[in-house]
Structure formats: structure tokens, C-alpha cells
Amino acid sequence: MNGLRVVVTGGAGFLGSYLCERLLDRGAEVICMDNFLTGSPRNVEHLIGRPAFRLLECDLTGFVHVPGQVDLVLHFASAASPVDYLRHPIETLKVGSIGTLHALGLAKEKGARFVLASTSEVYGDPLEHPQRESYWGNVNPVGPRSVYDEAKRFAESLTTAYRNSHGTDTGIVRIFNTYGPRMRPHDGRAIPTFIRQALTGEPITVAGDGSQTRSICYVADTVEGVLALAESDFEGPVNIGNPTEMSVIELAETIRRLAGSSSPVTFVERPVDDPAVRRPDASLAAERLGWRPRVDPVSGLRRTIAWFEEELGTADGSSYRAVVS
Ligand code: NAD
User: Fold this and answer.
1) Second-level CATH architecture of 5-178+218-240
2) C-alpha 317 – ligand 1 centre gap (Å)
3) CATH 3.90.25.10 fits 180-214+244-276+295-312, yes or no
């Protein structure tokens, strides 16, 4: 990555901020573009003094221009948590469609490689388990989650069309549930919610009976997988996720134990079209990118809980203070 000029859309978000950091560490110049819909400058404030880093406030669905050379575009802009995309349904569809069009246009104009952050949600409520890249998915096109799932499916299709029609060098990564420090305590995803609840003594709210499964990948692993794809010429799509599968109730109990919490576990209504199972077949990533997840869920959760303790002000046993959303 040394000497490359890289645009990261959505760079002030959870995953984007780590990508910016890793790219800078590897000697790249980074232009982070974000409209702060669900991200925040705070996620990259530690990078702002670095000469190779530039933060641009920019809505990808509007006019997008970057002067000078660009070698790589990592397109990560999009609301990603169910709470966020249900609150911003049209924005989510727009950034997945128009935003992707603009990001692809930028890559085409500059002759840059383009990497699309797609998602395991393209598999919907899967009828095949574990999910291989060859599986086409089971998505309800008019369900509430479709604003995210279909936007990403469209984005994959558009990326493929640019590759086939314009010869743009593209790669598609299907990211599975990723967690780690810098997630927002109120973003609605299971892990930050459970950790926040466990640390503040609130009941831990498990959806349904908790038997649905998830496979969780620590952020450092996901970022390495994305960068391995970016550095290759592989078009994908390729799954990046940790195949260790667990039920949601198991996840809640693990977090509760690791946080040393006495919060009770309670059950709430399961969201519409919530997938019953989720596990990547990660063999393609191993074969084509030499990528394997390295951080086991217990170690990753420990690190994440430690960060949330600081963030929530519960590290010293003091009470929960208001948190940035
Ligand atoms: P996030 O919400 O923290 O980050 C998304 C960023 O995109 C935010 O900073 C937001 O402000 C920005 N953004 C949204 N609309 C924009 C627009 N129109 N113009 C410019 N910026 C815009 O979410 P995240 O978890 O970091 O996810 C990043 C990407 O990775 C998303 O594309 C998401 O679909 C994908 N992904 C994430 C996960 C995961 O588990 N975190 C899983 C699968 C896929």
C-alpha cells in the first residue's frame, strides 16, 4: 500500500475508521469521505494530525470529485445497523445505488481499483448453510430490511456491470457480522447492545428465543481480509467472516459472563425477516487471499468489553454517563 492514494467512503464509520488507520500504517495516503450520517469525525480524530490523512465531509449521493490521482477506492459508505437503516431507509437505498454509482464513476475516471463493502445480508434468511458465495440468497424485496439488503444486491450488480462493461478493476467483499471497539453503544446491533446492557446492569434483551445463530468476526480480522482483497486482483464476491457459529442466547450469556454482570436475560420480539442462521463458508478467502480469522470470539469480546467500559465510564464501577450516539 506504500505510496498509494486511497479513497475510503464511509471512512468515519466503524469499519472505515480502522481501514483508514491500517492504510496509513502501511504507507498509503488516505482521503476519507463521509457525511457523518451514522459515523462521526470522532472515530478518526486520532488520525487528523497525520500528514497523509485527509477528511472530507461529502455526501456520496451528491457531487463527488477528488482532484489528482487515485489508486484505490474502498466503498464503505452506508448505514449498516438495522436501527440505522430503518431510521434512514431512503438514504440507505440512495447510498447503495447512487452513492455506489458515484464511487464506481470515480474509480473508472481514475483507473483505480474499486472494492465494494457488501454484506452477508445479501443471503437474506438463508436456505443454504453455511453460506457459500455461490448461494443467491433468500431476501424479501418488500420487507423492512430490504432497504439495506436490496441496496447491497443492487450495488453488487452495478459493480459487476462496471467490470464487464467498462473494464473497471473491481472486487466485492461480503462482510459477516463484525464487532469491536468504536461501535456505538446504541447502534442496535446485538453485541454493543448486550455489552452496554451487561455493563450498566440493564436486562440483556435477546430477540425471540435466542436460538437463531450468528458468526461474529473481530474488526482487526475483517479489516485484514478487506485489505487482502484490495491488494489482490480478485473480483469476488468473497466472504469475510469468522465461521465460529453461536446462538444469540449463547452470545448473550458469554458477554454477561465476560463482563462479570448480573444483568438478567430477557426476551423481546424477534424483528421481521431476522435470519435464523448465519455462518460463512470462508474457504474461498483462504484459498484466494490466504486470509483466515485469527481472533477467537472470547478474546475479541474481552477487548471490546474493555473498550466499552471506558466509553461508558463503567471501568471504575461508576455509574453510566450519557454516551455519544
Ligand atoms: P457505520 O454506520 O459505522 O459506517 C458507515 C459510514 O458511512 C458512516 O460513517 C456514515 O456516516 C457513512 N455514510 C452513510 N451514508 C453516506 C453518504 N451518503 N455519503 C457519505 N458517507 C455516508 O457502519 P459500519 O459497520 O462501519 O459499516 C461500513 C460498511 O461495511 C457498510 O457499507 C456496511 O454495509 C458494510 N458491512 C458492515 C458490517 C459490520 O458488521 N459492521 C457487516 C457487513 C457489511
Assistant:
1) 3-Layer(aba) Sandwich (3.40)
2) 32
3) yes
120-131 pLDDT per residue, tens: 999 999 999 999
Query: Which atom in ligand 1 lies closest to the alpha carbon of residue 177?
Result: 40
Exactly one of 148, 162, 179, 218 is catalytic; which is it? 148
Which tens digits make up the pLDDT trace of 196-219?
999 999 999 999 999 999 999 999
Domain boundaries, the chain: 5-178+218-240, 180-214+244-276+295-312
- CA 15 / ligand 1 centre spacing (Å): 7
Ligand 1 atom closest to the CA of 75, numbered from 1: 32
Please state the pTM of the whole predicted model: 0.95
Spatial CB neighbours of 48, under 8 Å, sequence gap ≥ 6? 41, 55
**Residue 148 is among the residues annotated as catalytic for this protein:** yes
